[in-house]
Amino acid sequence: MTKARTNADNVTADIAGITAGTGITGGGTSGTVTIAIDTATTADLTTTQALSNKTFITPEERTTVSTSAPTSTTNFDASTQGVLYLTGSTTSDWTLNVRGSGSATLNSILATGDSMSIIFIVTNGGTAYKHSAMTIDGSAQTVNWSGGTAPAAGNASSKDAYSFTIFKTASATFTVFGAGPVKYA
Questions:
Q1: Global pTM?
Q2: How far apart are CA 137 and CA 2, in angstroms?
């Protein structure tokens, strides 16, 4: 595109060479020229794509907020959420079972070498309860805890946040790193 500025209010340009798919449409080389910029153009990131020189600004993460409390085994469906926040008051320690969904295993949605990070937030009343174990697709996992020790207790009258990063190292084999509980009051 060549452009010559003639004054502050009048710009002349040859825009005949705009490439389709840029989100910009229009055309013409003389007379009245119109340009429309499609601000709704989005990228489809549901398949593997090479991205270079791209900036993600505050990506949106799928979150589930539920009024329930953790049960003895609470399922975390990783294919539909990155954050699970349970606002009901916790009544006992719990096991977190991470899976793909109710019909898919985490093993089936992660390739070997892939990882994912999840956040699990619970609400404690006057008695503090804590995360007691982790399973992935129903199989027990050893969590490598920040600081080297599993949490001994949760925090009373607060919201406790736990974060986990899960690496798939082979078929149905995972390494898990955990942190928390981080107290929010």
A1: 0.72
A2: 59
Domain total in the chain: 2
Residue 109 φ then ψ, to 5°: -100, -15
**Do residues 100 and 9 share a domain?**
no
Say if residue 87 is in the same domain as residue 14: no
Helix, strand and coil content of the chain, in percent to the nearest 5, comes to 5, 50, 50
Tens digit of pLDDT at every position of the chain (185 positions): 444 444 444 445 555 555 555 555 555 555 555 555 555 555 666 666 676 777 767 778 899 999 999 999 999 999 999 999 999 999 999 999 999 999 999 999 999 999 999 999 999 999 999 999 999 999 999 999 999 999 999 999 999 999 999 999 999 999 999 999 999 99
Question: Is the peptide bond prior to 181 cis by the omega test (within 30 degrees of 0)?
Answer: yes
In a domain, 50, yes or no: no
Domain residues for 138? 63-184
Which residue, among 121, 110, 104, has the nearest Cα to 167 in the 3D structure?
A: 110
Q: Are residues 140 and 76 in the same domain?
A: yes
